Amino acid sequence: MAMWVFGYGSLIWKTGFHYDDRLVGFIKGYRRVFYQGSTDHRGTPDFPGRTVTLEPAEGEVCWGVAYKIIRKEDQEEALTYLEVREKQYDQKAHVDIFSDWAATVPAVSGVLIYIASADQKLNRNYLGPASLQEIANQIVRAEGPSGPNRDYLFQLEKALTLLGCEDRHVIDLANEVRSILSGRN
Predict the structure, then answer these.
(1) Active-site entry in 86, 134, 157, 166
(2) SS3 21
(3) I need a labelling partner for 7 at 20 to 30 A (CA). Which of 26, 162, 170, 177 fits?
(4) Is 86 assigned a catalytic role?
(5) pLDDT tens, position by position, 5-52
(6) How many whole angstroms from its chain centre is CA 35?
(7) CA–CA separation, 25 vs 7, rounded Å?
(8) Residue 74 burial (CB < 10 Å; 0-12/13-18/19+)?
(9) Cα 172 vs. chain centroid, distance in angstroms?
(10) 135 near 173, Cβ under 8 Å?
(11) pLDDT tens digits for 129-185?
(12) Is 151 helix (H, G, I), strand (E, B) or coil?
């Protein structure tokens, strides 16, 4: 039986595991937000970066890419890889993926997704909401082993654009970061 994994952040442009097929689609009832702290990729324990997680949002959708993995060995390798990569995300869920606005039936059901919850007892890296300017300032200054936090934001913006998906939170945040950076020069 095939396993599906949904990426809504860096998994869109950097999977890191073998997959057999991919499907651009969306999940219903969630929105993408830069509320998760990154102390291992885009920041440090002393100065965390910000990466995306999902929060429930009635009537909203979150676009991304679902990856289909067929072979059992590939599934095991993908899960091992994801458990390390997504270790700061404390919840796993299974969701329905839709690829057409008019569809009443999902394109794929039971798709694995990693979510960073707002429960700071379970997720010590959750940073939560802040103003657009506060989040942008943090992203401008944060850098970790995977590079500057702003690169994560700009790569996500570019990946979503290439998929034909518009995410106002990502676009507004990227524009605010560009504004801050242009003020530095």
Answers:
(1) 86
(2) strand
(3) 177
(4) yes
(5) 999 999 999 999 999 999 999 999 999 999 999 999 999 999 999 999
(6) 11
(7) 10
(8) middle
(9) 16
(10) yes
(11) 999 999 999 999 999 999 999 999 999 999 999 999 999 999 999 999 999 999 865
(12) helix
